[in-house]
Specification:
This protein folds into 3 domains: 188 residues, Arp2/3 complex 21 kDa subunit ARPC3 (Orthogonal Bundle); 145 residues, no CATH class; 223 residues, PPM-type phosphatase domain (Phosphatase 2c, domain 1, 4-Layer Sandwich). α1 packs parallel to α3, α3 runs antiparallel to α4 and α5 runs antiparallel to α6. With 564 residues, the chain is of the alpha+beta class. It starts with 20 loop residues before the first helix and ends with a strand. The strands form 2 sheets. The chain has a 5-stranded antiparallel beta sheet with strand order 1-10-9-6-7. A 5-stranded antiparallel beta sheet has the order 2-3-4-5-8. The longest helix is centred in the middle third of the chain and has 62 residues.
Length: 564
């Protein structure tokens, strides 16, 4: 059978079998011809059928589906099938040929009209597609078949002209029932077969079994339940509603088909609420009932599908709008965070320096700063707050504000100032939140660097061919309330290069999951030590980004200082 919107006639489309075009067409031709012929024999086998006029004509639905799915090129299969169905009856070859013409032109016209509906979906999940099937195919296209067929039967003459009106009405309604009952089932059969899961299958089995049992109880008086009134036939409606709500058009089509099959057979054998008078009236009442059942089920299913689609589209619009607003807010947050980073570098005579922070997300927890302490002293700050994203950015902003608030006291008493910073950070953050930090105060006059390393990566100091590391002097900020800061110092010399970095530099990985590492940073610094601080900074960043092929997983912050 078909697949979703572009339904096919079988569960296996010929293209998937790897067939060439001629073989594919022959496959489709044989399939449609066989299905039409078998459905036609079933339709003519209904006991109160006479004169090749059936109250329910399943081939009308088969032909319409073939035209919609395979295309107009399948009309010869429909025509031959229609001819063969009637050829093996007493009406004669001329009448069979005329009926075949009508039974081919009708579905062609119906399919052509349906394709004029903008975006027509064979799955019948939209109300306008259901109405199109009803008006254009079930009522419009079948009228052509009924007219041509009734004329042929009267001319040949199989039926007398006096019965033309009755024959046309039964023919027309029979073809319409074939379209309304068979076509939706075939168009949604793949959807029905795609139901998986034991609970879903159990629901489906209960639905179909309940529909058949209730229909038998209403129509077959031999089971001991005497419905009597015609209205009792509509007792099957709860199952139709159940199918439409639970399984959509596929469920509604399956229930309608089963109800129709039971109702037609029981009425044909003289049982049920529609077997009370002459066959013509019985057929008309039956067709009216089947029309109400089929149209009601398809309409309800389509309305439910459209409502669900509207809900999905509304949710999608809300999601897109929420993402847009979030992106706009994140952009504002990124701009604000960038403003928290130093906008200028205090001038020093003996030291040239530059810094950069590249966040892995819009905002992050890395932070660097240059604090002008006066008298030729500058504090270099590099911190890494645990975590990523908004939470880390907020903690970073808090840390930056506290540090800048202490800038007037850093040069006078660095341990006491950092102790205050630790206490403030500890009290304003939740458990397991902390930050690593390196703070060094450089004296331009003496080239002395006083520093405290709070659990941060040891900065690298290149002195000629040797490497010195400035190890941690105290544990991380914010993890412990009782915290004692220890300060170390070192003297820089002309030609020295100082590099402060976060783990986004040394832990950057390539496609083989090999880290850039401290060795990669040292090698890059040595190979480019002739460059000034801004140029050297740019080269290191470019090297790391090239190493990772642009895949940045962590915030990357780097500060480079060249002693003059």
């Amino acid at each position: 059978m078909m697949k979703s919107e572009t339904a096919g006639i079988t569960g296996l489309r010929p293209q998937r079998l790897g067939l060439t075009f001629p073989a594919q067409y022959l496959f489709e031709f044989a399939l449609v011809l066989g299905a039409y012929f078998i459905a036609g024999k079933v339709g003519l086998a209904i006991p109160f059928t006479s004169g090749n006029v059936s109250p329910v004509w399943p081939p009308a639905g088969i032909a319409l589906v073939a035209m919609l799915v395979v295309g107009y090129r399948i009309w010869p299969a429909v025509a031959i099938g229609a001819f063969l169905v009637n050829f093996f009856t007493p009406i004669g070859p001329e009448a069979a040929l005329g009926i075949a013409v009508g039974n081919t032109v009708g579905p062609l016209a119906g399919a052509w009209l349906l394709r004029r509906i903008p975006g027509f979906q064979p799955s019948l999940t939209r109300l306008r597609d259901v109405l199109g099937l009803l008006v254009f195919a079930a009522l419009g296209g079948t009228a052509i078949s009924a007219t041509l067929g009734s004329i042929v039967l009267s001319v040949t003459p199989v039926n007398p002209w006096s019965t033309f009106g009755r024959a046309w009405l039964i023919w027309w309604l029979g073809d319409a029932m074939g379209v309304l009952i068979v076509a939706p089932l075939v168009l949604n059969f793949a959807e029905l077969m795609s139901i998986r899961g034991s609970r879903q299958l159990l629901n489906l089995a209960a639905l179909l079994l309940g529909a058949v049992i209730s229909c038998l109880l209403i129509f077959d008086t031999r089971l001991g339940f005497h419905a009597g009134e015609d209205l009792f036939a509509f007792g099957v409606f709860p199952f139709l509603i159940w199918g439409a709500i639970r399984f959509g058009p596929a469920g509604a089509a399956a229930v309608s088909f089963l109800i129709s099959a039971v109702a037609v057979l029981e009425t044909a054998y003289g049982f049920g609420p529609f077997a009370k008078s002459d066959p013509l009236k019985n057929a008309t009442l039956l067709q009216s009932f089947l029309a109400v059942i089929s149209v009601s089920g398809m309409t309800l299913a389509a309305v439910i599908c459209e409502r669900a689609q509207l809900i999905r589209e509304g949710a999608e619009r809300e999601r897109v709008e929420a993402e847009r607003l979030t992106a706009a807010e994140m952009e504002i947050a990124r701009q604000v965070q960038n403003k928290l980073l130093p906008q200028k570098t205090p001038a020093l005579t003996t030291l040239a320096y530059a810094g950069i922070c590249i966040q892995a997300r819009a905002v992050g927890g890395d932070y660097y700063d240059f604090l002008d302490l006066g008298l030729g002293r500058v504090a270099f700050v590099l911190a890494d707050v645990a975590g990523k994203g908004i939470s880390a950015a907020l903690l970073m902003a808090n840390l930056q504000a506290v540090l800048r608030g202490q800038s007037a006291f850093l040069a006078q008493d660095l341990p006491r100032s950092l102790g205050f910073v630790n206490r403030m950070f500890y009290e304003s953050t939740a458990l397991r939140h902390y930050a690593t930090l390196f703070l060094g105060i450089y004296d331009d006059a003496t080239r002395r660097l006083y520093y405290a390393n709070c659990g941060h990566h040891p900065p690298l100091l290149l002195r000629g061919e040797t490497i010195e590391r400035l190890p941690a002097t105290v544990t991380v900020l914010g993890f412990f309330e009782e915290w004692e800061c220890v300060v170390a110092e070192t003297t820089l010399a002309p030609g020295d290069i100082l590099a402060l970095y976060t783990d986004g530099v040394v832990e950057a990985t390539n496609a083989s999951q090999v880290q850039f590492g401290e060795a990669g940073l040292v090698r890059t610094l040595r190979e480019n030590r002739h460059l000034n601080a801004p140029a050297l900074l740019e080269v290191v960043v470019a090297t790391v980004q090239q190493y990772t092929a642009g895949e940045q997983c962590d915030d990357l912050t780097l500060l480079v200082a060249c002693v003059r």
